[in-house]
Description:
Blueprint: E1 4-11, H1 14-26, E2 32-45, E3 48-62, H2 66-76, E4 85-88, H3 94-103
Antiparallel strand pairs: 1-3, 1-4, 2-3
Amino acid sequence: MKNYLLVQTTLSEREDALRVAKFITEAKLTACAQIDGPILSVYWWKGKLESEEEWRCTFKTKRSLYPELEVKIKEVHPYETPEIIAIPIIDGSSDYLKWIDDEVK
C-alpha cells in the first residue's frame, strides 16, 4: 500500500488552485485533484507572522510520480516557496487504488 500518496499544495486564489489542479490532472500525474477552502493559514514568512486565506489542492497519485509532480507544481505555482508535501496512503480500498493506477501515467 505504500505505493500511493496524497500530495498537497496551497494557493491564495481559487482560480490558481483550479488552474494547477487541471494542469496536474491533464498531465496524468494524479487520478484526482481536490480543491478545498478557503482555509486560514497562519505562518512565518521572512521573519513576520502572516495569516492568509488559501485554497488547498490535494492530489491522489503513485509514489513513483512524485518527483515529476513536484517539478510540475513548481512550474505553474505562483508562490516563491510553495508548500508541496506528500503523505503516504497506508491503506485503502483495492478498487480505488487500482483506479489510481489506471488513471495516471
